[in-house]
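Dear colleague,

Thank you for sharing your sequence with our group. We've completed the structure prediction you requested, and as agreed, I am returning the results in plain text so they can be pasted directly into your records. Please verify that the sequence below matches your submission; if there's any discrepancy, let me know and we will rerun it promptly.
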Amino acid sequence: MRLAWDSRRVLVAIAGLGLLAALVILALRWTVELGYHQVSIVLDGPDWEATAAREGRDPNAILRAAAARGATAVAVYEWTLKRLAEQGRVAYASSEEIQSQAVAGAIAPAFRRILAGGELRPRAVYVAAGPETLGWLESALRDFLGPQRIRRVAGLLEVTGLRDDIEQIGLGYLPQDLRRMQSLGLTPVLRLRNYAGLTEDGLHRKVARLVGLGGGYTVVFELTEVLGYDRLVRETGNAFKTAGFSYGRIEVFSERRRQRGDSQLAAQMRPHVIRLFSLTPEELQVLRPGEARDKFVRSARERNIRLLYVRPLTGGAGRSASEANVEFVGAIAADLQRFGLQTGHAEPLPDLAIPRRLLLVAAAGAMAIVVLGLIFLGDAIGAPVPRYWAYALTAGGIVLTAVLFLAGPIVLWRQLLALGTASVTAALAVVIALRRIGRSASRPGVLWAGVQTLWVASGISIGGGLLVGALLTSWDFMTAAQVFLGVKIAHLIPVVLVAVLVWGTSRTPRSWRGTAQALWEWSAHPLRMRYAMAAVLIGFAGIVLLARSGNFGLPVLGIEERLRTITEDLFVARPRTKEYLIGHPALLLAGAAMAAGWRRWVLPLAAIGAIGQAGIINSFSHIHTPLLYTLLRTISALVLGTILGTLGTWAVLAVATAVASPRRSS
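Please find the predicted structure tokens below.
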């Protein structure tokens, strides 16, 4: 029994209600995004100062010049014994090193007294410094390690422990260090480091010392771990939130580069988290200044990054490295302002509370779309979905969503609903748009049919994208703490579904057994070389498509990087290459082929066209991308794809007419 058309309309109506709820949810998100436009350009303090010193310039003058060109903050690293010794402020040695120096007759004067007094303690480090510095060190180390491991002896500071560990302990900051940066017009960003022997008492004393320097700082961690990893991450987050600090979370595209404890700390500090983008020194060495600038600006525009962490470039043609870097900062700031962003003090993204009733209605719309997809698939393969099953599946999904709401977080269920909606909507959009096309004998009519197919399908896909975007709208998705599930699957399923659905419309399946029998008979046909070559090419294209989807995969080709730069300059929002260059022209040509009666070409062209529709929905699934930017890039790709597709279709029709004319005359 086929599902009656009025029952399908019920499902469409539920999907429409879900879309209305989605629009309300996205309007709430829009209001948050509109006020979130302050971007902080953070200089890496030690690297910038080293660049200036290398040229014999005053580091303060270079930092002040960068602040005048748009830099707003500077990263200040904690003092360690090793860094203090490199600047000549302290001298330190382990008890074993002091004994070795004595044997060699080269003992430093500062350590002679303790050696002569026989007070060396095994596995201890001895520090010599001026009275003021030594007092500060004693206070910092007592707070961090506890008083039982610190004592004064023979005018030195004795710290029990291994030298390699103690010399790398983050000791905190001297107040004058932060005041100096503030006097240059730059807000300090505190770069802290973890210590494996950190205790809970030591953590609270450390945070108290940071609070004594002032409140409201942003902290970014050094090396491979966040502070407190791995036993005290929760306590670290609570202490920082109480102190009013923000966590600068470094964006990574590989789990290997993620700092250990990062995700746990970000969840604990919600919403006091600001996303940070940086380029490593190795990346800066191979990028041209313009390319590096574009990456910084693009991260702020496309991914809601609000901390741009800038290390110095190695130099510039005909200019000193310091001048080139000041100009580089100015170029970043100018581009940010050109695209509607402002340089200033970056704040965390406000938490966004979505009413559960709205989300439940949106989830109902998503379930209705998935069930509609099952209905279309059942009709295509000769296994129609009974009416009661359609309603039962939809109602079951709604009830399950409501139950999960009561049980607690439903992140995984929302991700699964979004994945199902994205996969099904892209396929339905192509099939529904093609079913509206009738035969046309004129070239303008064929062209118009192609344009109509593309725009109708894209309108449906945009609606599905809005629904997906609403399902995933929340603080954790907007800050990329959670992401859309199954990016590669959402690109592959629509292509396969469109192929099956278009194939099913070209025949009248009596039952699923008849469909299976037809496929079995088709598989018995001899394999021709051209079909084998086509299968290999299609398989290779599919592998490339999947490998290029998401953040992990094949690198961008040079020609594609150039196309991205050109389209970024032409349009307010850069359109996606796979949409305007592949998917949209192919779908337009599929509609034209349908109107012209070229039935054998409709299926492969429609399947390729599904790539563009999946790309539209995928853009809306990037919740960390501002909604306005997603809408603009979708429209840009649609306009550009329409132009390219129309030109391509016109050329194909012209060639087909030229080839057919001699045949008719003969």
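Summary note from our side: The chain has three domains: 5-32+351-512+529-657, 37-78+172-343, 82-103+110-166.

Kind regards,
the structure core
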